[in-house]
Structure prediction request, 125 residues.
Amino acid sequence: MYLVDGNNVMGQRVGWHRDKPAAQRRLMAELARMSVEQNASLTVVFDGRPLEDVVDGSVVDGVTVYFARSGSDADDRIVELSRDALDPGQILAVTSDRQLRDRLQELGVETMRSGQFRRLLEKEG
Prediction:
């Protein structure tokens, strides 16, 4: 299962911050395509509040979408999801955040850098 730090992957594209909701929707669509093409389970976690029509924990086109909890950030939510997983060793977390990677690796979660994942997404498309 892929567990994606959404803002890290969005940050691999120039100008994503100009329209954050559009960038989130674009990434969710890319992840949905990857999910179908690879028959893979994908979960994405974004910083900030949920989108108007995407509530925390919902499934959008096969991709599970979470947002940071109030007063927290996506990194903590990713660690929480990993800690709560039945088998953290089955998770491939995508992030470029070194501290988050260290926290996840302590839980037995494998990690991949966001740039490498972005290239994988673009190759799939």
